[in-house]
Specification:
Elements: H1 13-16, E1 23-33, E2 40-45, E3 54-58, H2 62-67, E4 80-87, E5 94-96, E6 100-104, E7 107-111
Parallel strand pairs: 3-5
Antiparallel strand pairs: 1-2, 1-4, 2-3, 4-5, 4-6, 6-7
Amino acid sequence: MTAAAPAFAHHSAAAKYDASSPVTLTGTASAFVWRNPHCFLYLDVDAGPFQGRQYVVEMSSAGVLGSSGWNRSRIRPGDEIQITVLPARAGTAAGLCRACSIRVNGVVTKVS
């Protein structure tokens, strides 16, 4: 007798985010959530089409970010942020940081 292992599907970034139209955002971090399967940055946007709104940025897992030298206190509420994301296809205030650069308080870091 054999047991079948459950199959887990991971969402497709290509289905949810538009890689052909990157968007650069500037604003103030309101929260940085460090968890698996993905970390999230909540950004209060200063200018552009999302000005005055909170934008949710999906990032890599805590494990991947940790292996790049990040930790849960890398971004703190009030930090000034500039980030280029792949915007949500649905047009909502959400995007994906995949192999992007993020400027936190003037210091640029590559994010995988």
